[in-house]
């Protein structure tokens, strides 16, 4: 049986959580190409918290539905630039080409969006393995409403408990690493202490991949994550 992988960008590297039925492992990779080469042979699915498929114009329906799904926490979903903006080499050009304004956070994600779409262009098999997910959508699907901000102490604790409740003791290595990083300002696995929430984000989408076993719910409903702009989350 293969493993299941969750990947989240952590300001300098990709945090990778690999989950099996027995345990989890946290590591980092400098690029998604490295992730692909490392895990493609053994991972059943690789879920990434980055836009995977783009629209040529207009907003992606999946972004709007994710905002609606999260309600008061909908601001944690950023509008994805359209394909022309992503391929523009200059910020002003990208703003002009994008359907709506282009905020600094969205512009900062453009190189990561380029990474994943270049990967899909280079490796046809990636379309059957690598899908887009969103940690906040997954946490809400497992935990329900009243999810505190992940930057708060309460939000940090709730997310750790959610992982153990739904993933079992196999996610204890993630919790131990997160706790160690919270108490220690030194780097560990190339993860800064201020980015520990990204470890939990990668973990929840790894859990989603493992527990859904390919039977995901999608935003929008009935979308094909192999080719449609869509977000997968825990299956019903």
Automatic annotation (TrEMBL):
Pfam families: DUF429
Entry superkingdom: Archaea
Entry-linked InterPro entries: DUF429
UniProt name for this protein: DUF429 domain-containing protein
The species this protein was found in: Natrinema halophilum
